[in-house]
Amino acid sequence: MFISANGLTKTYQMGEVEVHALNGVDFEIEEGEFVVVLGPSGSGKSTLLNIVGGMDLPTSGEIIVDNIKINSMKDKELTKYRRHTVGFVFQFYNLMANLTARENIELATEITENALDIDEILSAVDLNSRSDHFPSQMSGGEQQRVAIARAVAKNPRILLCDEPTGALDFETGVSILELLLKINKEYKKTVVIITHNASIAGMGNRVIKLRNGKVIENYTNENPLSPRGVDW
Ligand SMILES: Nc1ncnc2c1ncn2[C@@H]1O[C@H](COP(=O)(O)OP(=O)(O)OP(=O)(O)O)[C@@H](O)[C@H]1O
């Protein structure tokens, strides 16, 4: 199994009160899957993504990626894991405002070992003609394409996307989902999208539903919808 979570918990102590952001989460993901993690606000999605991404540690339980328990890694190994194994896509793109599209992508490739060719990635996300533009000169959808290119250019095995269409209108959101699917199929990346948008679940070949820090459903879709088939 490529990714497995076993009994993951994450507890925060807020004064007298204990908040259980994750409360015994188990799941397995195979390499190459297109996974949608669906849950309402506060269900623990971001906490889970941060743990899978090596940015946070669980309170208990384990998370295993490619046979390595990442929650037992030393800081140095965890840094390597974040650099080489995972790429991140955020809701609000998180681009460097003073760097062009190309420079934003270059910056990410400088910290990794097996970076992909930047021109190839720019054309994969259909942004060749905008490569010298700054984020402020691009639409939200274009900025998200740069952010996806930046994540993919590192050539990670896993692409973790936190509400990637959350700040976009419907049409642009669909085109971003199409791009993520293309990255999944053509670049053979395992893609994990977290969202509160139930419509997006239709295009996942695996859907993991979270509620109150627990997995309430985990199923595979034999015939996932194309991004054009989802509606919200
Ligand atoms: N650093 C923290 N300190 C205290 N409580 C936290 C912290 N981070 C998250 N929580 C709590 O843990 C629970 C899960 O939060 P999380 O952000 O993972 O949910 P989410 O599903 O991503 O929500 P949203 O869609 O609103 O971002 C919430 O009740 C939240 O208030």
TrEMBL record:
UniProt xrefs under SMART domains: AAA
Source organism, top-level taxon: Bacteria
One annotated Gene Ontology cellular component of this protein: membrane protein complex
Gene Ontology molecular function terms on file: ATP binding; ATP hydrolysis activity; transmembrane transporter activity
UniProt keyword annotations, A-Z: ATP-binding, Nucleotide-binding, Transport
Transport in keyword set: yes
ABC transporter domain: residues covered: 3-232
Pfam families hit by this protein: ABC_tran
Gene3D superfamilies listed in its UniProt record: P-loop containing nucleotide triphosphate hydrolases
InterPro entries tied to this protein: AAA+_ATPase, ABC_transporter-like_ATP-bd, ABC_transporter-like_CS, MacB-like_ATP-bd, P-loop_NTPase
Homology family: Belongs to the ABC transporter superfamily.
Protein name in UniProt: ABC transporter ATP-binding protein
The organism of origin for this protein: Helicovermis profundi
